[in-house]
User: Which sequence fits this backbone?
């Protein structure tokens, strides 16, 4: 159950590391200690699954497989799979942004070296046998590599469509690549379990994120196309998105294939239940992104240029969650209910009992908003901002004068002292304090807000293809954040607990 507590939002990629991207190394324990010393007991990260277009963790090649770039080279050295000299080749000395192209190449080279040195075939066989999603992922990636990374719809017909018996034949045809990807996920899971044990020992709970949709060019669609709305040529007829909202006047055209809920009903929602099982392996608490699509989802013609020309279609929330809750407690989920929320979504939330989300930045431009802390319900998770928002200081600088004035009065910040950024930024500290003092069950603060950072440290701008997901914290930042202040307000308002 989510007790009254506090947490920090920082993606694993953003952790300080000598390898150009955060991962499962010593940086995770260092951040865990930072959380405890600051009075926080929850760590929220973005999806740890594979990344895709624009290096987005919301558009990967698998809804199940882990991101190999998080594998820690130092653990590989300690396990005797690579040398220290090998690991040093992956060093990257620029600490302020992730260079995904470099990190993808360097980590893959290390894992290939480790695979060549790995002799425990029995462990790989056992891992493969107990991991139901692994065959499709490993086979998909091996064939994809053999086609120079081309999407599956550009492959020859004999590879584009594969029955169960055909997949067994393909495992032999692409045996080396297939075994490598089994190994890659074996290492990812082994290292991630070590991180999870460390966090549990420190009484830190991990909140993960599950995107609503999967990419068309994914092992999920290629491996089990019956679960998706595709035509006879395996092309989507309609795709996912959202109508115009706070983030975009044209809406957001995501382009993901939609689920074929008619067929999913017939097999007892097998794919979804397997996905929830996998998420429970990865995280303590799961944030369900775009929860409203379980009530109704926005369907856009596959040939549309924007998301404006879509239509709402009924979802399967009550049916699906009735099955999910047979195995997983409702207390282990958070429903992301941002965007266009109607009575049906609210009714589904009430039916499931899941805590919803409130975001302070959304509260100051719409009268007496539900996103203002004095209007929070207890059964919600409150945020100053999400990964899709500007940093709070960057947002403040973008406000019209009348709204800025109201916001500063609301947080009781002296107008003459609000504008200075950095670790002692009065405006962001007081903004956070208002959140911490609220009645919400869990209060989450992006790391950038703890630092008083401006718009240049934003994690993601929705609808913008380039320049996202690269933010990195530094060792200097971890050492400079006012831990004492945040520990004090977490204790003052009863949030220094698990």
Assistant:
């Amino acid at each position: 159950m989510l007790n009254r507590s506090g947490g920090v939002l920082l993606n694993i990629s953003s952790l300080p590391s000598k390898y150009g991207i955060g991962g499962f190394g010593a940086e995770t324990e260092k951040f865990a200690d930072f959380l405890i010393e600051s009075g926080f007991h929850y760590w929220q990260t973005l999806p740890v699954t594979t990344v895709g277009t624009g290096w987005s963790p919301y558009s990967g090649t698998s809804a199940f497989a882990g991101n190999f770039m998080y594998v820690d080279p130092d653990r590989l050295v300690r396990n005797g799979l690579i040398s220290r000299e090998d690991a040093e080749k992956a060093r990257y000395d620029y600490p302020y942004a992730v260079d995904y192209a470099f990190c993808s190449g360097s980590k893959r080279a290390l894992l290939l070296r480790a695979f060549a040195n790995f002799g425990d075939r029995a462990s790989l066989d056992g891992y493969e046998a107990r991991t139901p999603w692994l065959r499709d992922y490993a086979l998909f990636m091996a064939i994809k590599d053999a086609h120079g990374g081309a999407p599956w719809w550009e492959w020859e017909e004999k590879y584009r469509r594969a029955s169960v018996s055909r997949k067994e034949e393909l495992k032999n045809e692409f045996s080396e690549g297939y075994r490598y990807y089994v190994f890659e996920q074996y290492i990812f899971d082994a290292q991630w379990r070590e991180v999870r044990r460390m966090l549990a020992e420190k009484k830190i709970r991990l909140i993960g994120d599950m995107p609503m949709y999967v990419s068309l060019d994914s092992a999920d669609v290629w491996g089990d196309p019956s679960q998706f709305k595709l035509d006879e040529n395996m092309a989507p007829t309609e795709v996912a998105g959202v109508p115009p909202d706070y983030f975009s006047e044209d809406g957001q055209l995501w382009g993901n294939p939609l689920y074929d809920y008619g067929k999913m009903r017939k097999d007892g929602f097998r794919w979804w239940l397997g996905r929830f099982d996998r998420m429970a392996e990865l995280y303590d608490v799961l944030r369900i992104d775009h929860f409203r699509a379980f009530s109704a989802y926005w369907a856009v013609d596959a040939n549309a240029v924007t998301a404006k020309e879509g239509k709402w279609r009924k979802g399967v929330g009550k049916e699906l969650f009735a099955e999910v809750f047979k195995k997983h407690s409702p207390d282990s989920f958070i429903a992301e209910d941002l965007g266009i929320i109607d009575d049906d979504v609210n009714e589904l939330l009430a039916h499931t009992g899941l805590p919803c989300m409130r975001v302070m930045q959304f509260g100051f431009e719409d009268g007496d908003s539900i996103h203002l802390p004095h209007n929070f319900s207890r059964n919600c998770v409150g945020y100053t901002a999400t990964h899709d928002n500007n940093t709070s200081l960057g947002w403040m600088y973008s406000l019209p004068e009348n709204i800025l004035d109201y916001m500063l009065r609301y947080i009781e910040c002296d107008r003459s002292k609000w504008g200075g950024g950095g670790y002692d930024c009065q405006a962001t500290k007081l903004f956070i304090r208002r959140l911490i003092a609220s009645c919400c069950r869990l209060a989450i603060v992006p790391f950038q807000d703890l630092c008083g950072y401006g718009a240049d440290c934003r994690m993601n701008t929705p609808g913008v293809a380039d320049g996202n997901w690269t933010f990195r914290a530094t060792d200097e930042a971890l050492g400079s954040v006012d831990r004492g202040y945040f520990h004090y307000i977490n204790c003052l308002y009863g949030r220094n607990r698990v």
User: Anything to note?
Assistant: The chain has a mean pLDDT of 96. The CA atoms of residues 397 and 419 lie 8 Å apart. The radius of gyration is 23 Å. The longest helix spans residues 175-201.
